[in-house]
Amino acid sequence: MTQVNENYKLANRFYMKTIDKKGSAFLRSILLRMKELGVNQTELAKRMKVSRPYITKVLSQDVNFSFRTAAKLAAALKMEFLPMLVPSPEEEGNVDL
User: Fold this and answer.
1) CA distance 71 to 86
2) Cβ–Cβ under 8 Å, residues 63 and 57
3) pTM: predicted TM-score of the whole model, two decimal places
């Protein structure tokens, strides 16, 4: 595994612990990657073939978007979009089957 992937795993663990109802962990990973690649909102919009105002709405969490859009966003930033569900820490060990 590359160092970049390891860094994302570590960052993801940290952000998942601090996630809020607005999906800030997702937003932080986008902003971090944009900074790493030197991609601004205009360039991201071009890569995704969407308007810059739409990107502004996404980054300010003023719009709901689909998994398809999240996947386009990931591809534009050379990332993988891996939606997953994990148990809440307070629920671990309390599973009724």
Assistant:
1) 20
2) yes
3) 0.64
Helix (H) or strand (E) holding 64, with range, is none
With a cut of 70, say whether residue 32 has pLDDT above it: yes
DSSP state of 66: -
Best CA proximity match to 79, nearest among 46, 39, 22, 20: 39
Structure tokens at 65: 């978007």
Measured on CA atoms in the order 18, 56, 47, 32, is the torsion positive or negative? negative
At 70 the three-state DSSP class reads: helix
Q: Which amino acid is at 15?
A: Y
Residue 35 backbone dihedrals phi, psi, to 5 degrees: -65, -45
Give the model confidence (pLDDT) of 50-96 as tens digits. 999 999 998 888 888 889 999 999 999 999 988 877 787 775 555 56
Q: Using alpha carbons only, give the angle 48, 54, 57 rounded to the nearest 5 degrees.
A: 125
pLDDT given for residue 26 in this prediction:
82
